[in-house]
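Input record, target 12 of the design panel.
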């Protein structure tokens, strides 16, 4: 019997790779995406495209309004930083950090997994090529998994505990791209930009674009998505 996994699907490069990895090791994938008040609708449009291209079992999009709180350049009118160096990214948490976002998303994923009788959740967090977000660190994932064991019926009564799978945690962006390519991921339908312009074209200057472009450059490849410049 095929196992089920909930994969947090943002429409980005990392989450698309997570879907392919989960499928490759034998899981039926149930994607979970969020309209959370982000700047542009390109994310969940890309998530839908990835879900269709990778033929996942089911794709659920949840509406939550994190703009009610603000506190991030992604959920308010605060300007998205551009042109930051890798040193800048290593030494401060940027204004693109959305307060408690992964905790909120993983909590929804935990509920979804319980309804599916699934023990596995996949999230594309990474501790190497990331923008300084505290909820992408291994110690955060470990803490959430411990909480999940205490907070769920399957955790209390079941023989198998919920597992938060982070297959990209110790990979560079270049390694992630190489892995995805080996699994047939079409990165031309993904998106990573924090501040896309007209026609959803990536800005090429925000932290996420910087990391993504460097990832493709690391294997001597051209990023297949279009940029403003």
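The sequence produced for target 12 reads:
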């Amino acid at each position: 019997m095929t196992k089920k996994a909930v994969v947090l699907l943002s429409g980005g490069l990392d989450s698309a790779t997570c879907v392919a990895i989960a499928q490759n090791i034998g899981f039926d994938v149930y994607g979970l995406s969020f309209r959370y008040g982000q700047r542009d609708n390109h994310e969940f449009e890309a998530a839908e495209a990835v879900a269709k291209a990778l033929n996942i079992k089911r794709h659920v999009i949840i509406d939550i309004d994190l703009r009610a709180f603000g506190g991030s350049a992604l959920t308010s009118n605060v300007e998205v930083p551009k042109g930051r160096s890798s040193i800048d990214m290593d030494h401060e948490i940027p204004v693109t950090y959305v307060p408690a976002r992964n905790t909120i998303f993983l909590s929804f994923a935990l509920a979804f997994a319980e309804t599916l009788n699934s023990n596995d959740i996949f999230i594309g967090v990474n501790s190497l090529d990331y923008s300084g977000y505290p909820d992408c660190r291994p110690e955060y994932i470990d803490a959430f998994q411990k909480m999940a064991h205490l907070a769920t019926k399957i955790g209390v009564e079941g023989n198998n505990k919920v597992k938060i799978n982070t297959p990209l945690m110790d990979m560079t962006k270049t390694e992630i791209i190489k892995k995805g390519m080996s699994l047939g991921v079409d990165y031309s339908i993904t998106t990573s930009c924090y501040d896309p312009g007209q026609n959803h074209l990536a800005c090429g200057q925000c932290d996420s674009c910087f990391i993504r472009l460097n990832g493709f450059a690391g294997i001597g490849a051209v990023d297949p998505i279009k940029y403003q410049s």
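The chain has one domain: 3-217.
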